[in-house]
UniProtKB/TrEMBL annotation:
SUPFAM superfamilies: lambda repressor-like DNA-binding domains, Periplasmic binding protein-like I
GO MF annotation, one: DNA-binding transcription factor activity
Gene3D superfamilies to which the protein is assigned, alphabetical: 3.40.50.2300, lambda repressor-like DNA-binding domains
Entry superkingdom: Bacteria
SMART domains: HTH_LACI (SM00354)
Domain HTH lacI-type intervals: 39-93
Leader peptide range in chain numbering: none
This protein's name: LacI family transcriptional regulator
Swiss-Prot/TrEMBL keywords: DNA-binding, Transcription, Transcription regulation
Amino acid sequence: MTVCLAVPSVRLGFCLPQEGGHDDTEFRLSADTSRITRVGVREVAERAGVSIATVSRVLSNHPNVSRATHERVTAAVRELGYQPNALGQMLRRGATRIVGFSIGDISNPLFAQIALGAEATLAQHGYSLVLSNSHGEQERELTNLAMLENRRVDGLLLSVTTETDSQLLQQLARFDGPLVAIDRDIATPTASVSCVQSDHAVGMTAALEALHAQGHRRVALLAGLATLRPGRERISAANVTAKALGMKCEVLSGEFAGPDAGAIVKLLRRPKRPTALVAGNNQLIAAALDALREAGLSYPRDLSLVVCDDVPLLRFFQPTLATIRRDPYQMGTNAAQLVLERLVGPAAEARTVVLPTTFVPGDSVGPAPK
DNA sequence: ATGACAATGTTACCCACAAT
DNA sequence: ATTGTGGGTAACATTGTCAT
């Protein structure tokens, strides 16, 4: 599935106001009289009594245009309701001013926030964002990336479902444009990839330290795939911190989103169950809450609960949920900046931006049960 | 300051020719 | 006579360059 998130006018300066809000654009028959097309620079030039080159100069604010000519052309633009044709501009420039964003699961609020941040920043520079959703399937991801490449997107933001698949890496290596990986470790053989990463260790360490301070010594981490950076980093940080603090940390991993509620219930019904649970991504929050209900347990009385990544509804929870938080909107903003700095202006090298995670305490963490 | 023109990538269309 | 193939060309909208 592909969703076009926003298509701002490529040249915002000439979105002249439409009186009464309706579209005044005139239409004309093309030379072969079989098709109706929108008003183009040719019509504007005729109306203004200048050449199309002069119209182009006025539209792009070229300095060598007389004031009188400038006024005649802008008047013609206004009268005809002329809007620049993005297809023609793409053809001439050899650039589409579109950035593609390959996402595994468009329904995940985390990606929605990342996309919003990216779209806002890109729009400020006259670029649009096109989302492609792979449903977590590698095959579909390859097809989507090929489609984005065929549509000649200028750059790609990547939140892909694999970091190592050779077909994917080959496809990315062939791509002629800047690549920005969002919390993924992608090493293509030829293409240099910029990265926006979260420092998962900071938040995870703080969370385990808070649990340790409350007397917890047996912790379970519900984790997404360890083959992708977020899961891998969270597991690694949890293991390192638990070892340093003398805690036992059990990792329950599973498919793309993590272990299912059934596996979590099984863990919670053990005679010597963990006294604290960390839901290692936002999709695991529901699974963790479901499992707690199924096992007849409540937090913080029976066990403590920490969740990773914010979901808007969480703030209505009572007791409040302790959260390892990051700013996905900021991630999107940074990803867009990284792609833009290699599309606009002097050539820039690929680089990595690391954003923090923070542990926000909540009432879901209490003293470890005896 | 202005106009003419080439160039961009893709595709529909036309024509000539070959094969069936 | 019909169908298929391949080559050539025009059309599309815009803009950079060069000439005047």
